[in-house]
Amino acid sequence: MNKKFDNNIPIYLQIIDEIKIMIASGSLKLGEKLPSVRELAQNLGVNPNTIQRAFSVLEQEGLVFAERTAGRYITNDEVIVMNLKENLATEELNKFLDYMKKIGFTKEEIIEKIKNSKRSDD
């Protein structure tokens, strides 16, 4: 995880978001072992307490679980991951729709824009 951090958002929240995206996209697989707190802190150039805080939140949300002496792992629960993916998509879609409405597009115009969009990755 190579990340440039935004100074306006707490680093632990940015780490949480990045790990959630990696889980939702499948780049972190169900049951996969996460790097240790110390290792990830060193790789990202942050304090280990920052990583510990991020991992704790992810554990509370059920996305990560700890094995006593073996480290932390991504959940094995596919339903949790599917819910995460849906929630992330809904959040982003709502941001997009709010922005489009703010700049004056109607729902119908937004739908038309999406239908007619040309992206290089299509």
TrEMBL record:
Q: Which domain of life is it from?
A: Bacteria
UniProt xrefs under Pfam families: GntR
Q: Keywords, A to Z?
A: DNA-binding, Transcription, Transcription regulation
Which GO MF terms are attached to this record? DNA binding; DNA-binding transcription factor activity
- Is Transcription one of the keywords? yes
What InterPro entries would the database entry show? Tscrpt_reg_HTH_GntR, WH-like_DNA-bd_sf, WH_DNA-bd_sf
PROSITE patterns per the UniProt record, alphabetical: HTH_GNTR (PS50949)
Location of the HTH gntR-type domain: 9-77
> What's the protein called, per UniProt?
GntR family transcriptional regulator
Q: Which organism is it from?
A: Candidatus Fimicola merdigallinarum
